[in-house]
Amino acid sequence: MKDKYSQPKLEEYGRRLATLLCERHFGPQPGATLDGPAVLRFTPVRQVNLFVVQQLLAKWTEEMAALRSPYFDFEDTEVRQALTQFMNVLSRRIRLGREVFEPLLARAVTDTLRVAAEPTVGFDEKLLHGRATAAKEQLLEGVRYIDVEKPLFQGFLESLPTTTALPREELLKQFRQYQEANYQTLHPLETVVNELSALLPLSEIDLREEEATPLIVAAAPLTPPAAPQPSPVVQATTAPVAPLTPTPEPEPVVQQAAPVSSPLAAEAPATAAEKPLYEKLKTERTSPPLAETLRTERTAATLAEKAPKVESLREAISINQRFGFINELFNGENMEYHAAIQKLDAMSDAASARRYVQEDLAKQYGWVRKEEHVNKLLRLIDRKFE
Fold this sequence. Notes:
The protein has 386 residues and is mostly helical. The chain has two domains: 226 residues, no CATH class; 89 residues, no CATH class. Helix content is 53%, strand content 2%. The strands form two sheets. The chain has a two-stranded antiparallel sheet with strand order 1-2.
């Protein structure tokens, strides 16, 4: 990008806006708390809300992973099922007070501006998460939390090979090339700025780095050297010595000082991007995290053999699945998701429930290229009616 944006300025605006919004919400009721649905609609800028959720899930996963102990068998089937149920119950009991919510909100505002201003940085921080290599499947997990420039990110990921993991530098290089080739589809930063400005005045120029002004320092003119004294002439019997040519006076020299760096030069992100929930749900051959023991979604054959029957879809759907369904299948509409799940839970057989998903809901919401999430929902339906 030609324009450079100052990370300190992005962070300062994020803090100011978070303080303003929290004061409006919590000021009249200091003891108030927010649950999951309230977080998803806290601001009119959907990307900000999604980035709050992404941070929340990452922190929540870290705390759950801390439960893992060398003294107990966390791979036991009953333990895995019990922990999964515990996680599902806990995910429906989100409670955020101002002291913990405000920093999450400030970071989300900063990240929203960052992704809009510099999509490559957003790709690195929000999808790669510092990994040295990444495969398409891993990157697709992070797209559920992207709203700004989402067609750009999805289009690029669809162009990647399905199974091959690529190095970080190669992925960043390819993403830059894809961005340049599809610049006409980019969501302008001005749109995000205008949305945020409706909450707290902001202009794009407020976020740019201040250009350093080169200083021209004129050096003092050099004192011309004294005229050389002629050497004594020695009388010779040959032709006389020619007089010496006077040395020309040197021109004054003007020196240009090196540019002075601006104190507001953009800094690297202060902290490394936190790993999202899905990162803990990936298989690791050494020291697997607790979240791996909680993963309930396997191949259809494994589910058919080991997955227990569920009494209700509402209770069986984990927090990660729920946010994925809401964002990917129901266009971010929390109430529409809950209405659909309630209707599915009330149905009497799997055939009716599958028909409702594959025909009615798929047509209503235009589920194109949503097979991954639809199949997860259908597998849960099979477990309910098995």
